[in-house]
Amino acid sequence: MEKLVHGGEGLGRLEGKVVLVPFVLPGEVVRVETVSETKDLIRARLLEVLQPSAERSDPPCEYFGRCGGCQLQHTAYERQVEWKKAILAETLDRIGRLDAPEIETVTGPPLEYRNRVQLHVRGRRIGFFRAGTHELQPVMHCPVAAPAISEAIPHLRRMAHQPRFPEFLQSFELFTNGDEIQFNVLQSGGRRLARGFFVWCAKQLPGADRPALDYRAAGETFRVGHRSFFQVNRFLIDELVRATVPEEGDGWALDLYAGVGLFSLPLARRFGRVTAVESGRGAAEDLEFNAARAGVAVEIRRDTVQNYLQALGDTPDFIVADPPRAGLGKRVTAELARLRVPLLTLVSCEPSTLARDLAALAAAGYSIERMTLIDLFPQTHHIETVTRLRRANTAG
Q1: Are 93-109+216-391 and 116-214 the same fold in CATH?
Q2: What value does the CA radius of gyration of the chain take, rounded to a whole number of Å?
């Protein structure tokens, strides 16, 4: 195998075709089985490692290779981060035609970091989906989940065999602040669960009957409701905010895709004016509550980022944007270019769309001042970055 690529698979070549294989390492010789094949590409399943890499190690999870959640547990964490840096740099060059800047890295504990997991139910069994399938892999625990979540899984497995556990519940999410657990229904065949179910759950999972949890991070307290997103790595949220929000600010700051206000509240303590744009009703309501409780002034606009920017005439002094995996896209980057914002910070969880967006911003006169890979997802292929950009001819 030659190298690892985005997605965590190993890339090799056979008879002129690219071969992608999961759970391998560069330099290894492996025996595989073809899963699918096209003119130029073979996707294969690992059968045996014939010549293992010296960097191969025993995974900390007994379900690794069957559960689809992690892709990189078979090597030391330090090497995982090095490969992510290399993959990020290669993606910036291949898609964005951008010279890779010096990429800084921020890491934390590689296990027990997730404050949120999604679990599935099949035939009263609870677990995760197997890699690339919708087949259930039952689990008793999860080494990358926060202890409160891992400890909850055996309770839920027992509860699933009791008559009060609804047979139509297909998937749910657990979110924890360390003390309490929020139980979010994701799929239930279109049927609503009775209030009594959540009260029953709360006897084993404190907080399961509450519509929202309070989460303390970055010196603030955030209400996070059932429908709201919050960053998943409980060890690195403060580092993410530090990398994203300037230590000092002046004038008007704009927070795009604001969520519950993870960046909005710290911005409001530094800038004279802060506007937060969030399209989701639940998150916008949480943001309004969080700002009021914190005693900071945040103008909240419940709208899509594209619509808001298109109607905007004045130019902010600073913008932070934390879009979903699809990135900013052509129209939003065009609006940012039109506004000629002097300083912009882009938070991304997908290198390919980041490279596309950075290329568009570079064409509009922006240059990368700093890029930080914050490893929010150890043991997995996911790459989170914070990129600070400055428009040409603006003072540093």
Answers
A1: no
A2: 22
Residue spans per domain, the chain: 1-56, 93-109+216-391, 116-214
Mean pLDDT, consecutive 10-residue stretches, the chain (396 aa), reads 93 93 95 93 95 95 95 97 96 92 96 98 94 93 97 94 91 95 91 89 88 96 95 98 94 98 98 98 98 98 98 96 97 96 97 97 96 98 98 72
Please indicate whether residue 349 is annotated as part of the active site. Answer: yes
CATH of domain 93-109+216-391: 3.40.50.150
Its sign, for the CA torsion 388, 311, 359, 390, is negative
| β-sheet bridge partners, residue 225 | 212
Task: CATH number for 1-56: choose from 3.90.640.90, 2.60.120.620, 2.60.120.10, 2.40.50.140.
Answer: 2.40.50.140
Collapse the DSSP code of 105 into the 3-class scheme (helix H, G, I; strand E, B; otherwise coil) and give the result: strand
Judge contact between 110 and 59, C-beta under 8 A.
Answer: no
Task: Report d(CA 196, CA 93) in Å as an integer.
Answer: 54
**CB contact at 8 A, 115 and 148:** no
From the candidates 61, 67, 70, 349, give the one annotated as an active-site residue.
349
The count of C-alpha atoms lying within 13 angstroms of the C-alpha of 53, restricted to the half-sphere facing its C-beta, is 19
Kindly report whether the global pTM for this prediction surpasses the value 0.85: yes
> What region does 16 belong to: left with phi over 0, alpha with psi -120 to 50, or beta?
left
